[in-house]
Amino acid sequence: MVTIVTGTTNKPTASESIKDFFQKYAEIEGYLYIGYPIIGTVDGAYPIDALLISPTMGIVAFNLIEGKNYDGYENDQDDCANKIEAKLKGYKQLVNRRTLCVNIFVVTFAPGLARCPQHDEDYPLCTNEKELEEALKQCKWEDNSNYSKVVSVLQAISTIRKGKKKREIVNPQSRGAKIRQLEDSIANLDNQQSRAVIETVDGVQRIRGLAGSGKTIVLALKAAYLHAQHPEWKIAVTFNTRSLKGQFRQLINTFYIEQTSDEPDWDNINIIHAWGAPGGGERKGLYYTFCEANNVEYCDFMTARDKYGRNDPFGEVCEKALREALSTEPLYDVILVDEAQDFSPAFLRLCYEMLNEPKRLVYAYDELQNLRIQSLPSPEIIFGAGTDGTPRVKFAPYEDGRPQQDIILEKCYRNSRPALVTAHALGFGIYRKPDTHGKSGLVQMFDQSSLWSDIGYEVAEGRLEDGHRVVLQRTPASSPEFLEKHSNIDDLIVFKSFKTQEDQDRWVANEIKKNLVNDELRPDDIIVINPNPLTTKKIVAPIRALLFQEGIASHTAGVDTAPDVFFASDNDSVAFTGIYRAKGNEAAMVYVVNAQVCFDSAFDLAKLRNQLFTAITRSKAWVRVLGVGESMDGLISEYEQVKAHNFTLDFTYPTQSQRDHMNVVNRDMSEAEKARIRSGQNNMAGLIADLESGQIFLEDLGEEQVDKLRKLLDKKQG
């Protein structure tokens, strides 16, 4: 059976006809790509209309004719064959001396013609399925021993995962040598990622995946692919973390040149922050652009925070802008949103309104990197209903030959299995000791238990159901073993507690010096993350001072660099960062300092645990989780449990009522809410003390008041 991957095309009728043909003929095996690959030539991008890779036929390229004009189709076939051969000969694994190890055939398919005109047999021209079937019988590939190599080359959308520059390695056992080998191993995108890049929906598409599953790369490559296919389209790429801007530009530029041998037209690709501000140029954001285009009052961050509080000021101003826009002005043909978990539904609706029909919106997110706590609802809820009451956006079930609307990237190419399971265990509080009154130490949990399977876990023991014990483990398919085989467990992950912050700072500075001097790591292989974004500049200053004394350059991302820059442009400086700027970035060696602040809190515990999860998952190879005092000892105790359970998650799945309780207790709160709760706690404590001491009596409170309190308590316990 043929697996069909549907990209974008300007020949929709012929493309549908050829997809229908291959869906009927189950005896044909292989992959059929519509609108892929794109081949770079001296004349610019050359898109292939459709391409079949088959173990019995080799490569069959289809030149599709949408109407009835087939003049010059023979020259088009020659051109197509020559360009594909030239591209494939660039891969040594597909060439034996000077001969390509796969047969290439070209077939022209013109379903709009009523009958097939006379033509040269060497240049097959088909107008219906019967003629197409006969033409394909002539395509034969006897020695198909290189089939898997051909598939790998054509599915490898890009090699941009490789390192930024060549590493100079002296010691083959050094960390530098190990990270070079890792980068080479993960250089090619896997099949699911390639589908996410190519498959294009005329509507809304959602991409979900773990940290390290390649969501940012997929979005960048998708933007470049769509730009190559439709250079006239206006495309926006947006995000929450400002330091992603440079990364997106580099990824899109590299991929576009790699595929087309040409530079992108940056007038038609807009890499733009979500919020933005007046001033034009780099300061503009999508929200600001919406306000400007629709004559709506713009609200900056400080004003929004003062008016709406810290909880979700951006969501509130987006809601306000949508309400006040009398009619919305479409500005883009495609909008791609990274880090969608950090946005409220209102921002996604705002993006939706900025699109021309058919509203091509792609949003990617990871539930566990949500630093806002509130998770994104279903698309039916996000985008609401039309005038007839039906959902404006509804994901259709997957059908073969149709592009997927909901794509899950379950394979993690950044974090090793031990690091990822550790991050999940700490993020959810799997092995956290329960508080005095609780039966479970869990901090948060997916409402839909099936999400665990979606992100690459399988049930090793028990049942993945409410109220039942379950043991979840990752598989070699979702967590490739090579990510953890390069080093032993106690080197992959280190948890360490210090008596004072000064002790921690000295240790970190000394380890970074070893990394650079002995381990053959580069400065851009190292990130130091402080979970609390508000204290980062002050907290990391002593470590940076110690490095300065050793002649080691460092910078605090967004403070010593432009807001849109994370790594130094020359890559010779160690990056220090708070958690928000760390998102979307990665490094071989990650130091998480002052991790004790994420252990426990009277408020915002789920948010703090998510910060720790996000920090740990920045690591491509090694991670050091460091902190001070008893709280850090508590985190170490949890990690030891993860290790004792052989990096599995062993817990009782909470019931709906338990999950509701967790959501209330650990919710993200504004300062006003926290003050109100503290006041209530103090008042309650004073009331209890007065009742116990006999200074006031229960009868003094009034029967109605006591009855209301009793009913509330009974309801909560029930």
Could you describe the 3D structure shown?
Helix 11 runs parallel beside helix 12 (about 345-355) and helix 18 (about 500-515) packs across helix 19. Helix content is about 40%, strand content about 20%. It is globular, with a radius of gyration of 28 Å. The protein has about 725 residues and is an alpha/beta fold. The strands form six sheets. A six-stranded mixed sheet has the order 1-2-5-6-9-10, with helices on both faces. It starts with a strand and ends with a helix. A hairpin with a 6-residue loop joins strand 17 and strand 18. It folds into four domains: about 1-155; about 190-410, P-loop containing nucleotide triphosphate hydrolases (Rossmann fold), CATH 3.40.50.300; about 415-660, 3-Layer(aba) Sandwich (Rossmann fold), CATH 3.40.50.300; about 670-715, no CATH class. The protein is built from 25 helices and 25 strands. The mean pLDDT is about 90.
